[in-house]
Amino acid sequence: MKTLRECVNTDRLINSFLELININSLSFSEQAIGEVLAGKLIALGFSVNIQSYGESFNLVGYKKGSVAGALPILLSSHMDTVESTEGLRVIRENGLIKTDGKTVLGADDKSGIAEILEALQVIQDKGLSVGDIEVVFTSAEERGLYGSKKFDYSLLQSKHALVLDSSGSVGKVVVSAPTHDAYTMRISGRSAHAGIEPEKGINAIMAAAKIISALPDGRIDTVTTANIGTIGGGSATNVVPREVVIEGEMRSHNLETIESLKKRMFETATKLAKKNQVRIHIEDKRHYVGFKIADDDPFVRLIDVALHKSGTFPEHLVYGGGSDANVFNERGIKSLVLSTGMQQPHTTDEHIYVNDLTSGALAVLEIVAAFRDFRLS
């Protein structure tokens, strides 16, 4: 009798991955890949629902399992890529899949999709006993988790999810991700002719410089960061600049810390604006809420055991970025993010090793097989 590792078909997995990355699928332009994935899920015995939300859609699949009393599990990855893959040229060498350096590869997150599909194919081919499986392939994740925020959660039964969307070798498990807030500061002074009557103006750029220099930036503490990302303003060298717009963000795994930091930053900016005789208007927005799942949580322990069984050493990560798992957790679905093996995502050096693709599919397979016996304590 074959082991699950022997059941994973590497050639099929590679071909599936190559097919997916050759479909250009920018955020909000996922129609082509969505049609392909819907067909693949239907062929795997899933009922498929296309959940449209205006700008795009999310793809939802459901397949009833054969184990009575088993809890359903959700498998998820996103369909979009951060940049266009138009003109993608794939290079394969020494077990590595990469591009010619002119485009991203799209392993973020099509490696996750391919690994899920391969695991589901093995489950079907071998008639493995598992519980109900739900699949969600989201859209526009790269545009601020847009698809998962627009998702209709009444379509789901699962209260536990695997989100395949993290970089690094297979075995990394994101158990904690931060809350992410962004802000815009609009600083308004008064324009004047810089060569004739500069004293009649109030220089918004100078005021903004003083505000920026006083704001916390970079690593604030071990679980908190802040960043001033963009600044724009002024119209010409002979005009005292009237307006400057500053955009920044802050992230923290501690909700109290991010609220305290935000309050301190905004109060500092307001005081300095008044001191420098400019007006300031501040807007802030919460992009997503953080989550933290304990290392000894039963779901985490199950994943650790399954990863060990697949021959992979599990490593728990406190991560600085967000994913659809942030939204799923906020909506009451306990979600962990698994690494897919993709390396250097969001760059033209993005690549993945075939061994990691195979290990990723096997990890999903082992976890789903183990989950059939999972019960809430």
* Mean pLDDT reading: 97
Q: Distance between the terminal alpha carbons, to the nearest Å?
A: 33 Å
Instruction: Report the sheet-strand fraction.
Output: 25-35%
Strand pairing plus helix content: what structural class?
Answer: alpha+beta
Written description of the protein model:
- With 377 residues, this protein is an alpha+beta fold.
- Helix content is 32%, strand content 28%.
- The chain is built from ten helices and 17 strands.
- The chain has helices at 4-7, 10-21, 31-43, 107-126, 146-149, 204-214, 255-275, 298-309, 324-330, 354-371; strands at residues 47-52, 57-63, 73-78, 90-93, 96-99, 133-138, 160-166, 172-177, 179-188, 218-221, 224-233, 243-252, 279-288, 291-292, 315-318, 334-339, 351-353.
- The strands form three sheets. Strands 1, 2, 3, 6, 7, 8, 14, 15 and 16 form a nine-stranded mixed sheet that branches. Strands 10-11-12-9-13 form a five-stranded antiparallel sheet, with helices on one face.
- Helix 6 packs antiparallel against helix 7 (255-275).
- The longest helix has 21 residues, at 255-275.
- The radius of gyration is 24 Å and the shape is elongated.
- The two termini are 33 Å apart.
- The model has no long low-confidence stretch (mean pLDDT 97).
Task: Set down the secondary structure blueprint.
Layout: H1 4-7, H2 10-21, H3 31-43, E1 47-52, E2 57-63, E3 73-78, E4 90-93, E5 96-99, H4 107-126, E6 133-138, H5 146-149, E7 160-166, E8 172-177, E9 179-188, H6 204-214, E10 218-221, E11 224-233, E12 243-252, H7 255-275, E13 279-288, E14 291-292, H8 298-309, E15 315-318, H9 324-330, E16 334-339, E17 351-353, H10 354-371
Parallel strand pairs: 3-6, 3-7, 7-16, 8-15
Antiparallel strand pairs: 1-2, 2-6, 4-5, 5-17, 8-14, 8-16, 9-12, 9-13, 10-11, 11-12
Helix pairs in contact: 2-4, 4-10, 6-7, 8-10
